[in-house]
Amino acid sequence: MEPSPPYDETGIRIYTPSPQTTHNPPPQTTTPTHRKRLQKTISKSVQKTLSKTSLLVNFLPTGTLLTFEMVLPSIYGKGHCTTVATLMINFLLAICTFSCFFFHFTDSFHGPDGKIYYGFVTPSGLKVFKPTREIEVPKDERYKSGFTDYVHALMSSMVFMSIALSDHRITDCLFPGHGKEMDEVMQSFPLMVGIVCSGLFLMFPNTRYGIGCLSA
After folding, report:
1. What are the tens digits of pLDDT across the range 55-111?
2. Whole-model pTM?
3. What are the backbone dihedrals phi and psi of residue 120, each rounded to the nearest 5 degrees, phi first?
4. CB 179 within 8 A of CB 172
5. What is the mean pLDDT of residues 13-41?
6. Is residue 55 in a domain?
7. Residue 158: domain span
8. Which residues cross the membrane (predicted)?
């Protein structure tokens, strides 16, 4: 006959759980050398992917796209594409597209006081937004606008429009009654824009550190 469990001061039986048997994990099938090679290969792949992604940070209109996605729901409302809503959507698209184009003509430099100063690049040089007499604007050749700036501005605008037109709220108001045709077009249009812009971006790398980009 098994002994009864002990009681505490309140008269409640105290049960002690039996010790559980631990199961040894199965032996590892990969050797330490193979594991190190696998980790090294994965690390190289991740670093290569991140390096390519970091280059796209200066190219994709992330700030403009975020603003567009925040303002669009208030304009679209409950889904009634009125004349006023359609005009406001066209105005929003124009403003955001101009923003993508404009910001690729901005650049920055570090002043002697350690602050970052932004300006607009022109064929004659950089025009600082808030010029001061104490700060001397660099006269380097890189601060002059050229063909590469126009290529990047057009690519940025194309990327934004391809993403914006992929939203059904835009196509429903701008192209009413052509939803099926627009769905077929937008299945391949963003991919074509991405391939073309990626190729041009590799041919004309971005060297600007303008508004919304990484600091110089």
Report:
1. 444 455 567 878 888 898 888 877 778 888 889 999 999 999 998 888 888 888 888
2. 0.64
3. -110, 130
4. yes
5. 57
6. no
7. 60-105+144-203
8. 55-76, 82-105, 185-204
**pLDDT mean over 138-146:** 86
So what's the pLDDT on residue 184?
80
Q: What is the pLDDT of residues 35-65, one digit of tens each?
A: 667 666 655 554 544 444 444 444 555 678 7
- How many folded domains does the chain comprise? 1
Contact call for residues 173 and 85 (beta carbons, < 8 A): yes
Does residue 192 surpass a pLDDT of 50? yes
Within-domain flag for 44: no
Residues 6+ apart with CB under 8 A from 182: 165, 171, 175
Please give the C-alpha separations between residue 169 and each of 86, 176, 205, 214, in angstroms, as whole numbers: 10, 10, 34, 32
The verdict on residue 157 lying in a domain is: yes
37 is a domain residue: no
Interatomic CA distance for residues 69 and 36, integer angstroms: 44
